[in-house]
Design brief:
about 325 residues, alpha/beta, Rossmann fold, Methionyl-tRNA Fmet Formyltransferase, Chain A, domain 2, 7-stranded mixed β-sheet, 6-stranded antiparallel β-sheet
């Protein structure tokens, strides 16, 4: 098939490669404009643009892929299918209707659960035991179209949003490749989403990372895993912001303290902090302006001891 591929983040790269490996022709790669990043705010291309350029594929970077000029460019491509994966713009009905067949999207959840911008993060934050990917026929409502294929995957306690995202990215590429084959051979079937099971995964805000130590240790562990790489779970201590990057839940009824209090520092476990229920062992952390560190290295350069209370400004 002749395909226009829409994608921006690294999550979309395996999908682009999978469609090419399946023999489909990528007429155009649509991705977000280069953004300023890093300490020196250099203009940086998206991961999808980088791989498209390396593969000598034509690239289109509109500020708004649904404006009139962009629509004309997309229509002129003459595509059979638009494939959208982690693109980052909402596409209007006129764009979705431009290809000869239709437009599909690969979404990192088992729809209709976790519609929205951050399905991987919120699945972990909410303590889900499993998630998956869905390929669906796009309509103007966000993530609401009929499902073509989906596939489930377990979430382990060791998973964070980065590692789970990598697994879902590879699995999603295979599912999208299979769906494209069905579409090309006119063997596709559609299943409507059950609106009674809809949940949402809104875009993350920096404030989502602020730790409330009154919450149970399990909830804080899930938040620390789910908020990587941004905004990360963080707490305040003596006027500094400290990111909590890796944790473990510890249940110990023999110790007491107030939520946020450092109860102990244990060489084989980490910095043990009292929560609203149970204890959290902080294993890896990062103070603002510094690099991520294992807790032992962090303690060698920071005054941190039992009795300190985290969360106080």
């Amino acid at each position: 098939m002749n395909i226009v591929f829409f994608g921006t983040s690294g999550f979309a790269v395996p999908s682009l490669k999978a469609l090419l490996e399946a023999g489909h022709k990528i007429l155009l790669v649509v991705t977000q404009p280069d953004r300023k990043k890093g300490r020196h705010l250099r203009l940086t291309p998206s991961p999808v643009k980088e791989i498209a350029t390396a593969l000598d594929l034509p690239v289109f970077q509109p500020d708004n892929a649904s404006d009139s000029a962009s629509l004309e460019r997309l229509k002129s491509a003459g595509a059979d299918l638009f494939a959208v994966v982690s693109f980052g713009q909402i596409l209007k009905r006129e764009v979705l209707a431009a290809p000869k067949k239709f437009s599909v999207n690969l979404h990192a959840s088992l729809l209709p659960r976790y519609r929205g911008a951050a399905p991987i993060n919120w699945a972990i934050i909410n303590g889900e035991k499993g998630t998956g990917v869905s390929v669906f026929k796009m309509e103007e409502r966000m993530d609401a179209g009929d499902i073509i294929l989906d596939k489930a995957i377990e979430i382990s306690q060791e998973d964070n949003a980065v590692t789970l995202g990598e697994r879902l990215s590879l699995m999603g590429a295979a599912v999208l490749k299979e769906a494209a084959g069905l579409i090309e051979n006119n063997k596709v079937s559609f299943e409507k989403q059950d609106e009674s099971f809809v949940t949402f995964a809104p875009k993350l805000k920096k404030s989502d990372g602020l730790i409330d130590w009154k919450l149970p240790a399990s909830a804080l562990h899930n938040r620390a895993r789910g908020l990587l790489p941004w905004p990360s779970a963080f707490t305040l201590f003596k006027g500094h912001t400290i990111k909590i990057l890796e944790t473990e839940v510890i249940y110990d009824e023999g110790r007491t303290g107030v939520p946020g209090e450092v109860i102990a520092i244990e060489g084989d476990k980490g910095i043990i902090v009292k929560t609203g229920q149970g204890f959290l062992a902080v294993k890896r952390l990062q103070q603002e302006g510094s690099r991520p560190m294992a807790f032992k290295e962090f303690l060698s350069g920071h005054r941190f001891s039992p009795g300190n209370v985290l969360g106080a400004s």
